[in-house]
Design a protein that fits this description.
mainly beta; rod-shaped; 13% helix
């Protein structure tokens, strides 16, 4: 279950952007019911260089 998946870009000349994810993982068995429930929420910060495009860095982070 994907709760949140986005990036935020600051378009200053040299900057960084955030890549945020929030996912619930649920694993079920027909015989035993729910086996696992786990939430993974992370933030990756990607530093940009002046000679890089935000689009390429978003693809690289993905």
């Amino acid at each position: 279950m994907l709760n949140e998946w986005y990036f935020s870009v600051n378009l200053n000349w040299v900057s960084a952007f955030n890549f945020d994810t929030n996912t619930d993982i649920l694993v079920y068995s027909l015989e035993e019911g729910r086996l696992l429930a786990k939430n993974i929420a992370e933030r990756d910060v990607v530093d940009e260089q002046a000679n890089e495009s935000p689009q390429n860095n978003i693809l690289r982070a993905y």
